[in-house]
Amino acid sequence: MGTLKMANRYDIIVVGDYCLDLIFSGLPNFLELGKEVVARDFAMVGGGSYNTAVALHRLSVKVGWAADFGTDLFSQLVLEMAKQDGLDEALFVHHNMPLRRVTASASLSTERAFMAYYDDGPAIPAAIKALTSASAKYLYIPALYTGPALDIGLPLVRAKRMKIVMDGNSYDDAVLSDPKVRKVLKNCTVFMPNRAEACRITGFDDLEQAMLKLAELVPLVVVKDGVNGAYACQQDKIIHADSIPVKPIDTTGAGDCFNAGFLKAYLNGKSLEECLRWGNIVGGLSTLGYGGSGKVITEQDVQAYL
Fold first, then answer.
1. CA torsion angle 82 88 93 96 (round to 10)
2. Can you state the angle between helices 272-286 and 254-267, rounded to 10 degrees?
3. Cβ neighbours for 132, distance < 8 A, ≥ 6 positions apart
4. Which of 82, 91, 138, 147 could form a disulfide with 130 if both were Cys (CB 3.0 to 4.6 A apart)?
5. Which of 13, 2, 19, 286 is nearest to 156 (CA)?
């Protein structure tokens, strides 16, 4: 049985699983069957929804992270990372069982491949427990989630007048023809897919068409497009902001960090163009470290870059 400490009100509650990211970089070439490829560099960092939670915390946002942890080594390592970063622990739920969540990333400078393993989670996830005890201006969901916990969580979100921000991370079968996908998007205030996700979900190859289609369901659509920068669509108007010039060493988690930068500026009432710039800066600078949490980026760092 998990335990949950008493909680309070946050700017943003981040839900979703932790992950321990094992990142192999500096590869001479990509993986091939039957051949060993030796990486030049290796890092072990927190990942999953930890990326956005810790990035928001480092940007001085009052963030609560609703996450489940087990008795396994992977859980303990990420817990220790979270404590060292000073993350609020009130929404952590601890379980007397293993909850192993680990990803191995083969990382090239602009692309990567993953292998992952996830133990089955608890019947009642930390997210539901957090929504019964805490509140926030925004609830951040790090994927296009249409699962059963949504039916339990939505009434709690509405009762507390929280707004939903959702990332576009999803499987290939997540498309607009699915009523569950349309339902969840209609309940979002901000939807933040990348270019490939926006096009796949809508079935349009043209990004502008894809954004306008999503904007029929969501008030604000934000699309990440890597080196091409980022776009926002609101009330049929599309704006764009360029990426920042960097020489990335690892792009793992850059989208998660973009989301954190954008939301920091959005919470502060910045214009959409300024929010995109914040997202591009935080996401871009994150690629100078390993994983989405390896590079510490503060509010002062962004201001200095601006």
1. 50
2. 150
3. 156
4. 91
5. 13
Residue among 299, 233, 232, 234 at smallest CA distance from 261 = 299
The amino acid at residue 113 is A
Going residue by residue through the chain, which has 306 residues, state the pLDDT in tens, using 9 for 90 and above.
454 444 479 999 999 999 999 999 888 888 788 989 899 889 999 999 999 999 999 999 999 999 999 999 999 999 999 999 999 999 999 999 999 999 998 877 566 788 999 999 999 999 999 999 999 999 999 999 998 888 899 999 999 999 999 999 999 999 999 999 999 999 999 999 999 999 999 999 999 999 999 999 999 999 999 999 999 999 999 999 999 999 988 888 999 999 999 999 999 999 999 999 999 999 999 999 999 999 999 999 999 998
pTM score of the predicted model: 0.93
- Positive or negative, the CA dihedral 237, 241, 242, 243 is negative
Per the CB < 8 A criterion, the answer to whether 262 and 189 are in contact is no
Q: What domains can you pick out in the chain, each with its CATH number?
A: 9-18+49-66+125-305 (3.40.1190.20)
